[in-house]
């Protein structure tokens, strides 16, 4: 499965990046490819490219705050959770995503 | 829209978004004001002359901190209504300052500004030919005007009265109550390490500080520092009593977590916390509550809303803060040290929490 995602938390210095790392690790374990964009206090990093978004089966948002560029995902299947969920249960989260998407 | 979704999208997310915009402002203003006041500078309201460097620092900090109601109003309205929310959010926050509704007024006003803007966009229909008038005239004028008038005539007075009542209430607390409320603030501020609960408490104590009550925010400053300090203490206890409680990687994390803690940034401790969540929550909650209780009881009062150790010179009772900080640190450190299992293997496989499928929102 190809995943693109965004993580963003309220302080934008820690949870954002931990969530990203946890999801990347979990995706590796599950054999998925994943690209994660972070929208922290420092601004957007690792911005998703239109090609990555196009190719993705699902958009996974681990966000607590308003994110910018949501319109990029129009027409895609978007799953949204809090950063907390992504940090505490990344593997189970991806399992659920697999179930929902059916891949 | 169902209730749960409304709570998340219309209430919680705007507040957290606003706070994410607020933090750099608080940090900039807090540190500049702290440096200015440590060096003997004073804030200047209006000047035609060149002022001293430290006065300039104090003035920069003071000015931007004075605009916090506007920043929070803008952030909330932006989160709800996107770009069209910015002008009404700014305006409502400024009027909140004028009518003495302060930070809380800015917060509540931000929601009103955002919702008014969304309502205008949704319900005001102009003839096709006048479409261009919506973003250039109708939305900015009416959304700002309506939100501002609501602040002036409807919500400004009750919020200002509420803040006055709260001020009297806080000033009238006896010593048991002081300890109790301090402990509550310390507990809530320390159990989720800079997460949503901490930020909600932050908004509340910041509102109190804008009314001149400095003790509650001092509890929060303390609680944010107790976690990294307590973990560091636990490390040294481990050395003394020969119980290895951290892995090598965790010790490395601690080396950055401690200096971050000096400046009240708890987030450096997060990797440690996540490795052992419930023991961490118990230990830091206990330390935060006890430290917060004593801080409030002894009247530690930071005049700036952040910056950790740098806030101490702005306090009229610095020793109260240092004493409470030491006690809180000792509690967190000792509790954590006692709860921790000795480390054997470098990697510990943990069982993950189950996810409630109902929490997944799928578009």
Give a nutshell description of this structure.
The complex is a heterodimer of chains A (103) and B (363). With 103 residues, chain A is α/β, with parallel strands linked by helices. Chain A has helices spanning 15-30, 50-55, 83-88, 90-101, and strands at 2-8, 33-40, 43-45, 58-63, 78-81.
Please characterize this protein's 3D structure.
The complex is a heterodimer of chains A (103) and B (363). Chain A has 4 helices and 5 strands, in the order E-H-E-E-H-E-E-H-H. By secondary structure, chain A is α/β, with parallel strands linked by helices. Chain A has one domain (2-101): Rossmann fold (3-Layer(aba) Sandwich), CATH 3.40.50. In chain A, strand 2 and strand 3 form a beta hairpin. The longest helix of chain A is centred in the first third of the chain and has 16 residues, at 15-30. The radius of gyration of chain A is 12 Å and the shape is globular. With 363 residues, chain B is an all-alpha fold. Chain B folds into 2 domains: 3-168, no CATH class; 175-339, no CATH class. Helices cover 72% and strands 1% of the residues of chain B. The longest helix of chain B has 39 residues, at 133-171. Chain B is globular. The two termini of chain B are 13 Å apart. The mean pLDDT of chain B is 89. The interface between A and B is medium-sized, with 29 and 32 residues.
